[in-house]
Amino acid sequence: MTNRKKVFISSTYNDLKKHRQALIKDLISQKYDVYCMENPKYFQEWRKEVFYNIDSCSYFIGIYAYLYGTIHDGDNKSITQLEYEYARDNNKTCFVFFHNEDMLWYPKFHETKPKYLEFLNEFKKIIKEKHSYQCFDSEDNLVNKVNQVIRVHEQGKDDKMSDEVRNKLCDILQGKNNSNKDEKIEKMIFDFISILWLRR
Known about the structure:
alpha/beta; Rossmann fold; five-stranded parallel sheet; 7 helices; globular
């Protein structure tokens, strides 16, 4: 039995393959167990296998670009959206990343079906309303940003930082705009960042 933390990586398949592979390599090197599309069991009994692994993960990492993903027969949402919604509805710690729209992307990996494009835009809107998120430029940039938010989250737990403050700090790191500032929380975050700086 392993005590290693598990990370579940969710994304569409071909367009984000290199990004997944870079993230998998990095997380495994840090002694995380990683579950994603590359797992040979992923497409076997999809719903049972995937939801079981989301249930048992410590972190759910969603990586999204410009494809909506596959919709199985009998479903009205893509696999990618169903994974995210299951993680969200089961209160998993979710870190979400979108490709930076100011950067170039492969033309063949843009959604061309009008209905799927509509689904994709609605899916992204749901995520942005419910979760903090960051934008990535490249494979290395994504890896660095994932490491950053996980490190802050885990450091906060080690220092017994409150969930409210830890989540606030993760929101700031992921660029979430919050107009309702709490000065007490802001000060605690500043003090915590100072501790991280001294320990680096």
